[in-house]
Structures are given as structure tokens and as C-alpha cells.
Amino acid sequence: MISTCEATANIAVVKYWGKRDEKLILPTNSSLSFTMDDQLKTRTTVMFSDKFKEDEFWLNGQKMDLSDKDTAERVVQLDLVREKAGIKEKAKISSINCFPTAAGMASSAAGFAALACAASKAAGLELNGKELSILARRGSGSACRSVMGGFVEWQAGTKSDGSDSYAVQHASETHWPELRNIIAVVDAKKKKVSSRAGMKQTVATSPLYKARMEYLPKLVEDMKKAVMAKDFVRFAELTMRESSDMHAVMLDTWPPITYLNDWSKEIMHGAIELNGATPIAGYTFDAGPNAHIYTTKQNVGAVKKMLSEIEGVNKVIECKVGAGPRYVDDHLIDEDGVIIPHEFIEGKGIVVK
Ligand code: DP6
Q1: Measured from the CA of 141, which atom of ligand 1 is nearest?
Q2: I need a labelling partner for 278 at 20 to 30 A (CA). Which of 35, 234, 269, 340 fits?
């Protein structure tokens, strides 16, 4: 009863920022993202055994406290899997983030997607994409998009039980092979306001949020058309404007939430200048100051040059669109249920200590 899965982060171009149900993690709007390549992956092993007295969660080789509110969703996911599979065994989870050091990237989407896949398989379940997406969503909303590769939509759904709130893939990773996401890291510190707390506050207090809700349904359709037609100019403009719209409602929240810093704004201006009338670089920012600049292969050099002139950019990572989760045999737990000591070394990958 062991399984290991690797899943990767996704970067949204139409953002999820607001819930209609906090417990079931149901969003107020549909969102769209690209799943990233292996540079932003998490590997997770799950083992169920009647020898285990309690659930355990190990992250990057360290035992975590599962009663902590930041880790409690792991148990929610394990319980859902146990219920579906009709088993009672406790589980050990061992997970490692293989993100470049100081990437300053949220790893929750990759982590919960990998956990949903590994836990369900370890419990003997054969879940389809929709079921895996619903399970991943219960860990963290954006994780429901990482159970698929390529270009993905999280359909908000309308049902109160969340059974119609899951991700669907509109195009695989081969649809737009020239597309790149250049990540410009300007700050790798943990954010002060979590996405969870921030979006709750926005829904509760922002008058502009209502306008955002009215504007998003058409944007989702326009964005899908632009991506399916590989119309980069249209795609980039919609992406940048959507990023600004989300950050506008964050600022409109009371007390205000600001995730962008001066370097983020320099990057925005650098891209606008580089773009002129015909965009080649479409930036988007999540709940943090680091930029994700969508561009195409032929313009990677120009984007990197623009970034090299901005003093606050500490690191640049060039990602492609990824294929989604995959199961591997390199477990992080041995057959006796002992955590295998391991670490991630940039350039080498996961190394057993
Ligand atoms: C800004 O998925 O981390 O990245 O569901 O509360 O765990 P919870 O939030 P989370 O929020 C992601 C917010 C975002 C936008 C996006 O990825 O769509």
C-alpha cells in the first residue's frame, strides 16, 4: 500500500481569489492556468499500514506537526481517501519540494496534487481526473488544476456539495510548444498574508470585488479563445490586465493587502516598455512579488535581457508547460515504513543521504 507521485505547480492566467465555501474550498469564479514543467515539482510518497499508530507528514526530510493549521489539510485528504477506499489504516506521507533554492514559489498546488494522486493509488483506488481534481481541491484550491498537464480550467461549479467544481484540460502540453514562463524572483520570503486569509478578507470587504465577478466570465471565454488560437498578443494583454485586476481588489480590501513590491512594479514597467504596441511578454503575479512572465521561445532572450537590467531580480527560471503528474518508483519511504533520508540538490535532483 505505497505509491509515489510527482506533480508540478501551475500558474494561473485567470486567477482564483475568493471562495463561496471555505470548508469545501469552492471558488466564486472559474480560473485558468498552465501546469509547469518538472523544475517546479514536488515528489510525494504515501504508505498506509496497520503498523502505523498515527498519521505522519514529513516535508523535505523533517517531521511536521499535523495538528498545525498549515498542515491539517493533509489529514482531510487522507480521511477522504480512507473513506472512499473503505480502509482504516494510518498513513505516512513523505514529500520533497524540488523547487530551485530561493525560488520564493508557493508549493501548495504541486504538493496537494501529488498527495491526492499518491494517497488514492496507495489506498488501491483508481480515480479519474475529475475525482483526483476534487480530492486535490480539498487540500488547496489551486491544487485541483495541477492534477492535469497543459492548459487547464477549474470550473467553479454551482452545486453546494462541490461535485461540479473541478478542473478540466483544454489543451495538452504539446498544444503551444513555444510558450515559456520566465519566473523573476525578487523576494523568496514567506508571504505575510496567506492566500487563504487574504482572499477571505477581499470577499468580505472589497467593493470592487463585485465588478471583478461581473468581468470574469467573459474574460475566461476570451482567454480560452486566445490560448486555443495561440494568439500571443491577445493572450498577453488579457493576462497582464487580469493580474492587475486581482491586485486591484487586493488593494481595495480592508485592511489593504499588497503583495507587489517596487521590483515587481519595475518588472511591469520593463515589460510594458519592451512590448510597445505588440506584446511579447505577458506578466502575471500571484499572492507575492515574484513575476511570471509568459513569452514565446523566440523572445526569451529579450525578456531575460530586460530582467537583467533590474537590480532586484535575484533569480530567473525558464519554465515550459508541463505534462502533469506521474507516478514513479523512487519511494521516499522504505518497505518497513521508515522515511528514507533525502534532500534536493539543485542540478542533481533528489539525493538519498
Ligand atoms: C493567487 O490555492 O493557495 O495563486 O485554496 O485557500 O489553499 P487555498 O488558496 P490557494 O490560492 C491561490 C491563489 C492565487 C491564484 C491562483 O492560483 O489561481
Answers
A1: 5
A2: 35
